[in-house]
Amino acid sequence: MDNIIARYEDYLIHTKHASANTVSSYMRDIRQYASYLSGIDVDVLEADQSVVSAYMQWLQSIGKSPATVSRCLASLKSLYLFALSEDEIEQNPVHNIKVEKAEKKLPQILTGKEVELLLEQPRTSDMKGCRDKAMLEVLYATGIRVSELINLNVDDVSITGGFIRCESGGKTRIIPLYPEAVQALHTYMDDVRLKMLATPSEHSLFVNVSGERMSRQGFWKIIKYYQEKAQIDKDITPHTLRHSFAAHLLENGA
Questions:
Q1: Measured distance CA(135)–CA(129) in Å, rounded
Q2: Under DSSP, is residue 173 helix (H, G, I), strand (E, B) or coil?
Q3: Using an 8 Å Cβ cutoff, are 110 and 241 in contact?
Q4: pLDDT value at position 29?
Q5: Residue 124 within any structural domain of the chain
Q6: What gap in Å lies between CA 121 and CA 165, rounded to an integer?
Q7: Average pLDDT for consecutive 10-residue bins of the chain (254 residues)?
Q8: Minimal CB count within 10 Å: which of 24, 114, 144, 164?
Q9: One domain, residues 144 and 208
């Protein structure tokens, strides 16, 4: 059992080149499943459809959400497809198993007033506040993904042109900025960024307190901090500003 799981993990990392988060999520689901099978003395390669169905029902019985159960099913489906391709099994025991679909939540949208309130929170008198102001302004001004925001490099910014260059999926987009975002970026790049760098050769536009590229988790903490400071009673995530950007464009007839 451990052999096929170890080989599958190696396949995710070295053949599929899955992200660390994806590998961690899949393996967490699979190890929990393997633990369950161990408790009923069934090998992972010997489990049939009835065993997998029973496991899904057990997850539901201990209060796992439909989203979590669906994710676990997807993880097992991937594992068994790999086992099938390796001729370790003859049939995929996950085939045709259905679980209750997770209810899709509509994204939280901030009102124009709430966006203004959030953007006003960073204290531009200190370095972190200056950086945070620039990040929030750019995210709202452009509607780019959080991953695209934190992957921006200094060379992707034109202060004089008032735009950023964003590369994603092999395509390059030139995205204009509104004046407030240009000013926030200009102040951050001129007065703050160099003082925060770990090494002068760092190309990342937005860096953390260690002087290295900002992470998604780091930016999420920044968002939550300013949400609490602004006393906005909504479940704000790093994607909230992106959804709000799109909604406000529609409201303004774009």
A1: 10
A2: strand
A3: yes
A4: 95
A5: yes
A6: 27
A7: 86 91 93 92 91 91 88 94 93 85 66 90 95 94 89 96 87 92 96 92 95 92 92 81 74 58
A8: 24
A9: yes
Residue range of the domain that includes 74: 2-85
Record the tokens describing residue 7, joined without a space: 């080989």
Task: Please give the pLDDT value at position 254.
Answer: 47
pLDDT of res. 250: 64
Single out the residue of 183, 175, 115, 121 nearest to residue 148, CA to CA: 175
Looking at the domain assignment, is residue 101 inside a domain?
Answer: no
Sign of the alpha-carbon dihedral angle for 57, 63, 64, 70: positive
Distance CA 89, CA 100 (A): 27
How many angstroms separate the first and last alpha carbons of the chain?
A: 55
pLDDT value of residue 98: 82
Q: What is the predicted pLDDT for the residue at 253?
A: 56
In this prediction the pTM is: 0.59
Return d(Cα 227, Cα 219) in angstroms, integer: 12
For the chain, how many helices (H) and strands (E)?
11, 3
